[in-house]
Amino acid sequence: MTNPAIEGAAKKTPDGLARRIRGLSDRTIAWIFVAPTIFLLLAVNIFPLIWTIRLSFTDFRVNRPNNEVEWVGLRNYQRILSDPDIWATMQATAHFLIWTIILQVLIGFTLAFLINKKFKGNDLWTTIIVFPMMLSPAVVGNFWTFLYQPQIGLFNYAIAFFTGADPASFSMIGDVNLAPWAIVIADTWMWTPFVMLICLAGLRSIPDSIYEAAECDRASKWRQFWTITIPMALPFLMLAVLFRGIENFKMFDLVVQLTGGGPGNTTTLTSIDLKREAFERWRTGYSSAYAVILFVTVFGLASIYVKALNKVKER
Amino acid sequence: MRSKLFTTASAGALLAVTVASTAQAEDLTLCWAAWDPANALIELSKDFEAASGHNMSFEFVPWPNFADRMLNELNSGGQLCDLMIGDSQWIGGGAENGHYVKLNDFFDANNITMDDFIPATVTGYAEWPKNTPNYYALPAFGDVVGWTYRKDWFERPELQAEFKEKYGRDLGVPASLEELKDIAEFFQGRDIDGTTVYGAAIYTERGSEGITMGVTNALYNYGFLYENPEKPYDLEGFVNSDGAVAGLEYYKALYDVGTPPGSSNWYMGENIDAYRSGQVAMQMNFAFIWPGVEADENVGGGKSGYFPNPAGPAGQFAQLGGQGISVVSYSEKQDAALEYIQWFAQPEIQAKWWELGGYSALKAVVEDPDFATSQPYAQTFLDSMAIVKDFWAEPAYADLLLSMQERVHNYVVAGDGTAKEALDGLVRDWTEIFEDEGKL
């Protein structure tokens, strides 16, 4: 049976064009449709990547357009990998990454577990909890600088209230020991709701019938939690860890706004350091090598992690 | 003085109209930092629009992002800006990388001479290489780091008595950096009218140029030199001399004993806020803020005083700020942009610039007999401009600046290592940069 609408549309195709299309294979037509996308992908993603790799072997500086560009081989890579300052930024990034993920997963899962229970005002609480992740990271960074203010900051007053310490006696973003925790706290406040939502999706995907069967077998709540809830929500938890890990590896805006990478280099994450090298020092070749190293690191870690995630899902 | 100036300004405007009548009307864009003087320049430029028929647009970027944004623009050969009021340290890069138009012929053709401007501003904002008659900018806004203090607090009899008893001298404008530290320590944590206040707000910012613009005011006065005066780019023993080490230790001591808690990343804006809100007795800041302080209802109207950066054991110097105005070489409207500079250089326009809150660098303005008394801070501005020193203006200035930011901030704020180690590290960084640049 023919579809009159399609037939009508086909009739509208100009004869010349119709003749030309009629001569093309399905594969060719498919290529015609995907070619613009592939072209855009090549232009926006692949070409810059290849160009960055090429630049990473040179001493090119974008602010010296008149200088001759020299091929320096692996020198940029050697400098980066043997620079103790860069290893310090890697450590700062690892501290930030590990602690934000641990805290966000623990708190996020707990909140999801509680929100998953049916109680009055459930929807309202969900909306309130989700509120921080709706804000711009720059805004969050900015207002946490006020919260952390020793003279007027609510955070210091809250700590003072519980400990009896003088609120002006410590500075969360001015102290080398406290600043790494200050950025962890702000990021956890902002992104725990995101982890909570993913965990909530995981918890709600567990069929009630499994719990009912466990009840019939007289399994305790504790046992149900460890043998049903955790294993079945684990792929979602792992997905949350993957998202937050990738996001926090490239964290920039919130931390720049909050601490500017200081005091000293204690909160200088790799993305902040990379930006300084590329757009403040203008060491384009060097920063390209830096970017390549970070890309390989994230890509490698993410690939291993995704394989592990797939294995968990297959179980 | 004002009526005379306006008469001459009108005459100047008429002259400019005549000059401009043959030219085509253009839309000119002037790029600068987003701060109070920029607003004054918008007001001032209305006269240019009326006189020339050109339309002025402005692209103002907040200070923390100003260098990033504008240097990106210049490096990419962008045509956003026809006129650039770039920072003094950009002059080397602007000249050597071909971003700025050389103005010598234009100055000669229009009888604009650099002898008419404050010498330090010509060297700082216009010349490249330094101390050679090659001009890439017209001094546009003279600025220098100085100090503001709460005169009303200093004059309180009970505080004066307590200070005299403790330090054996009157509580007043400090004659030396050591005295300034004593005063900061005296006010630190003090209760004034039921509020806890602190000594001084100083520059500690890490991300752009803050702490360098602050610490140099101590380093210069204790004996720091950028290089061997006899041998360019010879740094060892000058950048990390005993005097320089003492200067850096001084700045850290001032930070430790006399600044508000949490002031670990403060620059111009944070210092202004702390001062205006009555948190601190003194603030280090560029002179551009002084008109705003005078107009402020909390701290203005005679409650504040001003003094130049006090002397140290090796002399009295202050960090130069300010900018020159340049024509961007990528602009397609260079003739109209040069017209703006010609108009801006006129004495009557410069006089109006000062009245609106812009710090003119023209001698005819600042050497006017009425100038020193025209504003409460005018004399301090003159005294400060007489003792200025500036940071490197090499094409690699950004590299040099970031190294100094990192080394100094890590020592002063984070307490990393010793002052000697910080400056030795700075010598290593700078040497490497100059080697990369082919200067060593």
From TrEMBL, chain A:
Q: What is its main location?
A: membrane
Compartments, record wording: Cell membrane
Q: Which domain of life is it from?
A: Bacteria
Q: Which UniProt key words apply to this protein? A: Membrane, Transmembrane, Transmembrane helix, Transport
Location of the ABC transmembrane type-1 domain = 90-305
Q: A Pfam family name for this chain? A: BPD_transp_1
GO cellular component terms? Answer: plasma membrane
Entry membrane topology: Multi-pass membrane protein
Official protein name in the record = Carbohydrate ABC transporter membrane protein 1, CUT1 family
- According to its UniProt entry, this protein's organism is Loktanella fryxellensis
The taxonomy runs: Bacteria, Pseudomonadati, Pseudomonadota, Alphaproteobacteria, Rhodobacterales
Automatic annotation (TrEMBL), chain B:
Q: Where is the signal peptide?
A: 1-25
What Pfam family is a match, any one? SBP_bac_1
- Protein name, per record: Carbohydrate ABC transporter substrate-binding protein, CUT1 family
PANTHER family reported in the protein's UniProt record:
ABC TRANSPORTER PERIPLASMIC-BINDING PROTEIN YCJN-RELATED, ARABINOSE-BINDING PROTEIN-RELATED
State the family named in the UniProt similarity comment for this chain.
Belongs to the bacterial solute-binding protein 1 family.
Write down the species.
Loktanella fryxellensis
InterPro entries in alphabetical order: Bact_solute-bd_prot1 (IPR050490), SBP (IPR006059)
User: GO cellular component annotations, sorted alphabetically?
Assistant: periplasmic space
Its localization reads:
Periplasm
Report keywords, A-Z.
Signal, Transport
Q: Keyword Transferase: yes or no?
A: no
